[in-house]
Design brief:
about 900 residues; alpha/beta; 9-stranded mixed β-sheet
Length: about 900
């Protein structure tokens, strides 16, 4: 306990004491709801909704709502919420993080705040780390919600479901009864009271909604309340990985292959240096000279330019810093990234800035085209869009500062239902990796012989396969989990507590599944967990330990560490290794000392702080982009909201029936007014005799036709004896009158409804295209802004200043493009935004968009909405191509 806690008291304990009276209220209500019939219990949802409509708050009905969920769970699940689970549920409802140890029933805890918040009808999202868990948890917990009259949707990578029970979920929590999940549209799944899905799918759907060309294409509602399961994995580990929807760029290059053949011929130390702490590699002068000779260049920076230097740097990183079977695997000719925290392959996700292509060239697989970003957002900024956010995990307190500063989330440690009996031993430290594995296998064999189950956690696929080979040679039967198949791994991991079971798994394989002990295992000491290496983050080590000792069961954990491990090598193990050599310590002889374990944890704390600084740095820059993104997305949404009725109505669309559509016209007229003022201002100097009358007329002509009568009028005004300001005002009024008259004539020609459709299409199209170009420009600005530091300027301040200027330029560019095209657009068979009718494939942190062909376009005269569609479908125009 810290000195501050001794003086002021433990803040966590104070929070728990505030919650205790609410738990007492819930417990007092248990008898009341036990006496209710099923119909009476079900009707409580309607009663709660009526009370909310009359002005009561969620906090006021919380005790009764939680008591109703507890009673329902007892009836349909045969599970009763413990008091500590009630505490966890209250913390989640308050918009905080519940840290609950493994096996304490987080999935059941979530049903309490989910139900309470879902009865408002605004929607609740339960966010999981993979598709399997979202299916499993929805199927597992939905009987509670269904009994109480709430609907449950499930969002998957390429399909969506609604819970429609046909069978009762069995006692095996690993299996998913798919017959209870009925396939529906994505929009229907989001319209449910409760929606389960992964962080990737929720984020990608948000981006896709903001690329939609009609309100009907949007699937999400307003982001009301989200509970993030394994919140540390999603909001911390994945915080630096942006979600990106991209399109293949037209440019392709063979330079990746060229540099992939050059880099292996360079020598370490002489031609390049490696900084493992910073995870960076740099060319020496000798190295640069050698590369220039290979390329037959005198100066790569001048002759090759920035593109050559960029490819060289990425090839160096790919060759030196990124290792096969550790950072990535090759699967069916594709480079698949391995998540450093979970050990899971992440198909579809790609390293940015050409690094992925450099690795593809290094591994001699097909080099994919680079991409252009269409839409992007970080998880940090996506989850901050929710009205209320909370999370649950077994390991959050070590990152409490980051949760507080970035997400405004407090971490509350929830007491265990039963006292923890697990024994966490100090680290066993060895001179080298060979000695470490020899000793580890010896310990595994000893426990296996007496029947005690063992789970060995590794940090990479490579290490798990190496350990598996050693165990095979020793004749020890075991299962290996490389975290490739979520459902299969959950089944295997759930059996890891059976007698004599030996399981090797990457750190987080099967996360979310409890390991239940087999018969007689308690007497053997419970589940024994060995870690083969310390991770950079203490949380990951604690997660591995947390697999053992659930619900007061016995267990033991220990980490086996060698001086050759990455963490030890980077953070000063040289002195310790030299000491072990001097003392003549055998390679498989351990040193077990609490001082060494504390030193390792101290190194982990430093790395965590460093990684937090990096994530905070990323967020500081992304916050600038986020404000711009929100404004552009709001402008798009306003346009879609205005035109929403066009998609649904069967009425004749005219000014009388749909006056609100004039908002679109008013936007265009406002642009005409701005442009009229701008044209006059840039062509009128202080001296009237030097005003550029010809340039002024040409600028107007770029927008619409200018006849000789108009030219004569504007010349007459400029040549008058009136004061300059009055002349400028008269010119502006004349130009605006010309543009608005021409616009009204165009509307008379093609019709009220068609004009509104053109306005919508032109506004969205130009906004989307220029926003995409703006994203490219912002990325280039971000890449080069660090150079400002050399000029004694704060790069972030300069980035904010320059990005503001660029954003103002974007807004004016949208206006200019809209006005230059609004008179030129013709009604065609199919009018679409560059974001419409794309084949968008998403997985992991990025998405690819491939444009589909729209075929030949046919010019059409004014068409009545009830006339036959000119596409030849036989349908009415309003039911077919109108508005597409």
């Amino acid at each position: 306990m810290s000195i501050l806690n001794k003086i002021f008291g433990d803040p966590n304990e104070k929070e728990l004491q505030k919650i205790k009276p609410i738990v007492d209220q819930i417990n007092k209500l248990e008898g009341k709801f036990q006496s209710f019939s099923d119909d009476q219990l079900k009707n409580q949802t309607n009663i709660f909704r009526e009370r909310l409509e009359k002005g009561e708050t969620l906090d006021q009905i919380l005790p009764e709502a939680f008591a109703v969920v507890r009673e329902t769970s007892k009836r349909v699940m045969s599970q009763r919420h413990y008091d500590v689970q009630l505490i966890g549920g209250i913390v989640l409802h308050q918009g905080k993080i519940s840290e609950m140890k493994t096996g304490e029933g987080k999935t059941l805890v979530s049903t309490l705040p989910i139900y309470l918040n879902a009865i408002t009808g605004k929607g609740v999202h339960l966010v999981t780390v993979n598709d399997y868990l979202s299916k499993r948890d929805a199927n597992w917990m939905s009987p509670i919600y269904h009994f109480l009259g709430l609907s449950v949707g499930v969002i998957q990578h390429d399909i969506s479901y609604i819970f429609d029970p046909k069978t009762k979920p069995d006692e095996n929590e690993v299996t998913v009864e798919m017959e209870n999940l009925r396939e529906v549209s994505r929009k229907e799944a989001y319209a449910c009271d409760i929606t389960y899905g992964t962080n990737n799918e929720f984020g990608f759907d948000y981006l896709r909604d903001n690329m939609a060309v009609s309100k009907g294409q949007m699937v999400q509602r307003e982001l009301n309340f989200a509970i993030v399961d394994e919140v540390d994995s999603i909001l911390i580990d994945e915080a630096r990985t942006p979600l990106i929807i991209s399109a293949p760029d037209s440019e392709s290059s063979t330079m990746y292959q060229t540099f992939s053949q050059i880099v292996p011929r360079l020598d370490n130390e002489k031609d390049y240096t490696v900084d493992e702490k910073m995870r960076a590699v740099s060319l020496t002068d000798d190295g640069i000279e050698k590369v220039e000779k290979m390329l037959n260049m005198k100066d790569i920076y001048n002759e090759g330019g920035i593109m050559f230097v960029h490819h060289l740097e990425q090839a160096l990183k790919a060759e030196i810093l990124f290792k096969k079977d550790k950072d990535y695997v090759i699967n069916e000719g594709e480079v698949i990234i391995i998540d450093e925290f979970t050990g899971r392959p992440m198909p579809g996700r790609r390293f940015s800035e050409g690094l992925h292509q450099a690795i593809e060239a290094k591994e001699n697989v097909k080099v994919q085209k680079e991409s252009r970003t269409l839409a992007t957002i970080t998880f940090q900024n996506y989850f901050r869009l929710y009205g209320k956010l909370s999370g649950m995990t077994g390991t959050a307190v070590t990152n409490a500062e980051e949760f507080s500063k970035v997400y405004d989330l407090d971490v509350i440690i929830i007491p265990t239902n039963r006292p923890l009996k697990r024994i966490d031993k100090v680290d066993s430290v060895y001179k080298n990796e060979k000695g470490k594995f020899t000793a580890l296998v010896r310990e595994v064999k000893k426990r296996n012989e007496k029947g005690q189950p063992v789970l060995v956690g590794t940090i990479s696929i490579e290490k798990s396969e190496l350990l598996s080979e050693i165990l095979e040679r020793e004749g020890i039967k075991h299962a290996v989990l490389n975290a490739k198949f979520h459902e299969k791994e959950a089944l295997i991991i759930s059996n890891a507590g059976q007698k004599s079971a030996v399981t090797i798994a990457t750190n987080m394989a099967g996360r979310g599944t409890d390991i239940k002990l087999g018969e007689g295992v308690n007497k053997l000491g419970g589940l024994c967990i060995f870690g083969t290496e310390r991770h950079e983050a203490r949380r990951i080590d604690n997660q591995l330990r947390g697999r053992s000792g659930r619900q007061g069961e016995p267990g033991e954990t220990q980490f086996f560490v060698s001086m050759e491990d990455h963490l030890m090598r980077v953070f000063g193990s040289d002195k310790m290794k030299a000491m072990m050599d001097r003392l003549g310590i055998e390679e498989d002889m351990p040193i077990e000392n609490s001082f060494i374990s504390k030193s390792i944890e101290s190194a982990q704390t430093k790395i965590e702080g460093y990684n937090f600084d990096i994530r905070k740095h990323v967020l500081d820059y992304d916050d600038v982009m986020n404000k711009q993104r929100e404004l552009i997305y709001k402008k798009r949404k306003d346009i879609l909201n205005i035109t929403e009725k066009l998609e649904k109505t069967d009425e004749e669309v005219n000014k009388e029936n749909f006056p609100e559509l004039l908002e679109l016209k008013n936007k265009i007229l406002e642009m005409f007014e701005n442009q009229s003022q701008y044209i006059v201002s840039i062509h009128s100097t202080e001296n009237r005799s030097s005003w550029d009358t010809k340039g002024m007329i040409e600028a107007i002509h770029k927008i619409t036709f200018v006849d000789s009568e108009f030219e004569n009028k504007i010349k007459e005004i400029i040549n008058s004896n009136n004061p300059d300001e009055e002349v400028r005002s008269q010119c502006t009024d004349l130009i605006f009158a010309l543009l608005s008259d021409a616009y009204n004539k165009r509307e008379d020609e093609i019709g009220y409804e068609a004009m509104r459709q053109i306005e919508k299409m032109v506004l969205l199209r130009n906004m989307d295209i220029l926003w995409m170009e703006h994203l490219d420009s912002m990325e280039s600005l971000r890449d080069g802004i660090s150079l400002q530091g050399y000029g004694q300027k704060d790069p972030l301040v300069e980035y904010k200043r320059e990005s503001y200027r660029m954003f103002q330029s974007l807004l004016s560019g949208i206006e200019e493009n809209v006005l230059s095209s609004i008179f030129k657009v013709q009604i065609v068979k199919k009018v679409e935004s560059p974001m419409e009718n794309k084949n968008i494939k998403t997985s992991g942190g990025s998405a690819d968009v491939s444009a589909s062909s729209t075929g030949p376009q046919k010019k059409i005269d004014k068409i009545g909405r009830n006339n036959p569609c000119p596409c030849g479908s036989g349908k009415k125009y309003k039911k077919c191509c109108m508005g597409k």
